[in-house]
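ARCHIVE CARD
Drawer: 12
Card no.: 0347
Subject: one protein chain, sequence and derived structure
Cross-reference: see card 0346
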Amino acid sequence: MAQSFLCSQSAFDLELAFRGEARGVFSWLQCLVMEEEEWCTTRGCPACVVTHVLHSEPTIRLILAACRLSRSLRKQSKEHGYPLFDFWRSSLRKVVDRDPFWGPTQAKGIEERAEQLEWGIQELILQCHELSDMVQSTEEVPETFLDFWQATVKNTLTGGARTDARNICVVLDHIAGRHDKV
């Protein structure tokens, strides 16, 4: 979605499609996926994948946030298509709390960060829906930069409130010198 909105193939630019907490969560998730690629794609034996969760705070936080998010989305959805992972969440909390390395003090902090991550992921989901709507509602890309500005002025004069994603791409392409001069 971010690639479509930004007209960029660069993984480093993708976070620019988001704002606020969603941008931070997107960057955090992107880093986690790069660092934990094998774990994120669940390669290896299932028991190893599960036990790897306890190897780092980010993986514990992610699993707790995912459990919380599934419950939140289930409450918001009329279809109840989201599974409940309360058993996993409570088991993970107990294990972290009893673990000699993590312990109860760390467990509370991880739970708080997981809650913040869940809120950020919800915001990221909302912004992805907004981007999807913007990309899907785009009209044909104007042929020239002048056509873009005429369409923008017309849109403004007729009360249109939103500049679509493709027009933003035209501006970026023009600035980068990828369109013919007007």
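Annotation on reverse: The longest helix spans residues 103-136. DSSP finds nine helices and no strands in the chain.
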